[in-house]
Design a protein that fits this description.
The chain has 13 helices and 16 strands. By secondary structure, it is α+β, with helices and mostly antiparallel strands. The structure holds adenosine-5'-triphosphate and magnesium ion. Adenosine-5'-triphosphate (ATP) binds next to helix 1.
């Protein structure tokens, strides 16, 4: 899949912007704070309906506007689809080919992206919720059923936690309702475990080799740290263990008003030679681990979906030495569309620059290097 065009209306620091993109390499150059990341963010939002930055929906809307619209055309082999998102007053609406899609889970997994952004380093260093979110985004883009199960699980979890709190307050000893919720939780947990095991098994088949090629270090593995301490997917074992845990933890859970075991507590550990990379790896190596993971993600996408997602790289090359940069760009095959931002074109390999379409970004305005062909911009026009 390839992004053919992108339109922004009152998004971040852009009033109105229309861009036509190259199916190959696209490089956005500009000084700090001019709006390069905002362009990648808009593409990310069009893919995943949420920003990868902190903040609310309203933070995405240009300061002097009340609504924002982002729109893109995506080329697949032989056909094109239009995606659109309207943002206003903390509400988002998503459309495919002008038709509103009410369930976000039905929208995601159509137009897919893989990113490497500066805050992706939090995948190693941040809290477990960041890694669960990563799992959800990546598996969700591959299989949209997965997100339906995650949503179902989250609703059940809320119901279960509310009921535990009620049990704590009124001391009700009728646990039949809780048993029914537990059964439902087990059913949907099995689906989520299945996807997570399968996905991690597939990623692990790829990541060690990728990491060896870019960093010359072998034995990188992602370990699935789940609260049931399972080594592999085993339906009956998961069922038994989960029910047993619910029983064993009941008084503690009632006291705390929350569910202590389950996929909502899962985590991932990146290990080099069996040692946790968070503790062991240098800052540069941690960055390379994340890049190796993202490249593995690209390769897995191709294997499962038979095409690559669009690759978004936000200023990634500046902190990586030349040799490793070269190792990384070997993975940018001709059938991958890559969108890169940078402060300095010298940070990007010449071979990439030669092939690339270059855009100059200046305070909410984008020009193509060598002309203004394909760039149309009108300022201060409200929706
Ligand atoms: N809702 C908004 N309305 C108007 N402007 C905004 C909004 N949100 C952010 N901005 C502006 O967007 C600019 C930041 O854009 P962006 O993060 O894309 O910069 P950048 O070009 O990636 O910079 P750097 O090279 O430092 O990463 C800032 O000047 C900020 O004030
Ligand atoms: Mg930036």
């Amino acid at each position: 899949m390839r992004l053919k065009s992108l339109k922004l209306f009152n998004f971040r620091n852009y009033s109105e912007l229309t861009l036509d993109l190259s199916p190959g390499i696209n490089i956005f150059i500009g000084d700090n704070g001019v709006g390069k990341t905002n362009i990648l963010e808009a593409i990310y939002v069009l893919s995943l309906t949420k920003s990868n930055r902190y903040g609310t929906i309203n933070d995405l809307i240009k300061h002097d506007a009340i609504t924002s619209k982002i729109n893109c055309l995506v080329d697949y082999d032989g056909y094109t689809k239009e995606y659109e998102i309207m943002l206003s007053d903390q509400v988002k609406k998503v459309y495919i080919n002008k038709q509103e899609i009410k369930k976000i889970a039905n929208y995601i997994s159509n137009f897919c992206v893989t990113t490497f952004m500066p805050n992706d380093i939090d995948i190693i260093r941040g809290t477990p919720s960041i890694r669960r979110n990563l799992l959800n985004i990546q598996i969700g883009q591959l299989y949209n059923n997965y997100l339906k199960y995650v949503n179902e699980y989250n609703s059940l979890l809320k119901i279960r936690n509310d009921y535990l709190k009620r049990l704590n307050i009124n001391g009700n000893t009728d646990l039949r309702y809780l048993d029914i919720i537990n059964q439902k939780m087990v059913e949907v947990s099995l689906k989520i475990y299945y996807f997570r095991y399968f996905y991690l098994e597939e990623i692990n088949k790829i990541i060690s080799q990728v990491f060896k090629k870019i960093a010359n270090i072998s034995n990188l593995k992602i370990e699935y740290a789940n609260s049931l301490n399972l080594d592999s997917y085993d339906e009956n074992l998961i069922k038994d263990k989960l029910i047993l845990r619910y029983k064993k933890n009941l008084s503690k859970e009632i006291m705390q008003g929350m569910t202590l075991t389950g996929v909502h507590r899962d985590d991932l550990i990146f290990k080099i030679d069996g040692i946790d990379a968070r503790i062991y790896a240098s800052e540069g190596q941690q960055r390379l681990i994340v890049i190796a993971y993202k490249i593995s993600e690209l390769l897995l996408f191709k294997k499962i979906k038979k095409e690559y997602p669009v690759l978004l790289l936000d200023d990634v090359f500046s902190e990586i030495d030349l040799k490793k940069r070269n190792n990384i760009i070997k993975y940018f095959k001709d059938d991958i569309q890559v969108i890169i931002t940078t402060n300095d074109i010298n940070d990007i390999d010449k071979k990439l620059v030669e092939k690339a379409k270059i855009y100059l970004v200046k305070n909410g305005n984008v020009k193509i290097k060598g002309g203004v062909k394909n760039v149309r911009r009108k300022s201060n026009k409200s929706l």
